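Illustration 12: ABC-type polysaccharide polyol phosphate transport system, ATPase component.
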Amino acid sequence: MDSNIAIEARHASKIYELRGKQKGEQGQKFYALKDLNFSVQKGEVVGVLGTNGSGKSTISIILAGICDPDEGEIKVNGSQALIAINTGLNQQLTGMENIELKGALLGLTRSKIEKIKAGVIEFAEIGDFLYQPVKTYSSGMKSRLGFSINLCLDPEIMIVDEALSVGDKGFAQKCINKMKELRDEGKTIIFISHNLKQVRDFCDTAMWIEGGMLREYGDIDEVCDRYAQYVDYYNNLSGKDKKKERDRKFAKRIIKNSKQSFFDKLFAALKTR
Ligand SMILES: Nc1ncnc2c1ncn2[C@@H]1O[C@H](COP(=O)(O)OP(=O)(O)OP(=O)(O)O)[C@@H](O)[C@H]1O
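Figure caption equivalent — predicted structure in token form:
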């Protein structure tokens, strides 16, 4: 991969199996992401847009190395950290113990772990709650802790998935200001948000994912304008037309049963006789 590129997706797809509607009924397989092709330059700040269920969080967990695509590939060139609501924190452990755990999992030195603790005490501003189990935190406090830990890890690629939507306005602004500093230092940032104003204000480019497919990727204002038009169009549809639109998108993602799976079913049926 070219050394100026931070992320490269080639024909990348993620497939999930849905449960059947009835108990025991075979579910369908469907593409949460389908045939994604894109490259993110090092130092680029990309806003990821898409209506609910379009596949944004699925991209974020692949980029963070939590799972792999089922088809194609996504290469990530650099250390990465995912900041998302309720991700990566052990609820039973205290804030401080979570830092120890993360440090141990990443194989960090003691002095680096101590540095992260000091950074979190300063940035998260949750005081002595850092010594309480995370399960006792409010969602805003969890967001403060998660954001601060990942920030202090100083990753080359930061993936922020709706993490600012739960905290209070003051903390969200503090995070945005910090991310602006990181942007100016040349970090690559993937910013997933439903807040179009924040995306326009903060990002260089936008990636619009709809129904698991890459619909547009390019200039921030152009993509945001067309996405906003689509959201208006969708919201103004009647209930019946909304359902049609959802069904149309869903149909494109379903993997039709192949002959192979017919024989699989037959074989399974014979085996149970
Ligand atoms: N573990 C899973 N098993 C089955 N389906 C899943 C799983 N995780 C996600 N999905 C489905 O994959 C699709 C994409 O989900 P994803 O969470 O990536 O969407 P999103 O764009 O982040 O949505 P939102 O804006 O609502 O957060 C959705 O249809 C979702 O139901």
